[in-house]
Amino acid sequence: MFPDLKSVREVLFSETEITTFAVPVAELVALGRLVVDPDRQQVSWAGKALPLTRIERGVLAALASPPLRVWTYQQLYERAWGADYIDDASAVRSTVKRLRAKLRDANATVMVESTRGVGFSLVDTRW
Question: Which domains occur in the chain, in start order?
Answer without folding.
Answer: 5-124 (1.10.10.10)
